[in-house]
Amino acid sequence: MIRPVVMIPDPVLSTPASSVTEFGSATLALAEDLLDTMRASSHSVGIAAPQIGVGLRAFALDITGHKKAQSCHGEFVLFNPEVVTGHGKDVGREGCMSVPDLTGDVARYTSVVVRGFTPDGDERVIDADAFEARALQHELDHLEGKVFLDRVVAHDRVFQRKVYR
User: Which of 10, 30, 59, 89 is 20 to 30 A (C-alpha) from 22?
Assistant: First the structure.
């Protein structure tokens, strides 16, 4: 089901999400809602559960076909994800469906290894670089109650969005 996207300053976006403790029909339904909502927006490469008003540690991601992609693990949903390792640093422009009118320059690792669980509860490890690494870190921030505005490299590095790509 396509869910409405929550906008700042909704408190769910600034509250750390809770860990998922049981896997089953509820996690499968949440995964489908995340995927449906992400797919419904042609410019979205990811969405976290807090962005649809659910305070749980889960997100969907799919950077397939993105011009800045190097690694690409296709479409997936992770529950209780965590960064195992991160290397390198790069500053890049980010936007967010929950902050529709702004973009900003954010420093992120250029490569990460993220471990989490599939909607069925199976462990999954993602080794990502370039744009996929950036997207993973962006979604992980949502689970910590942060949006990209909390991570911009400087206040003068926030910009009005001209076009939502």
Answer: 10
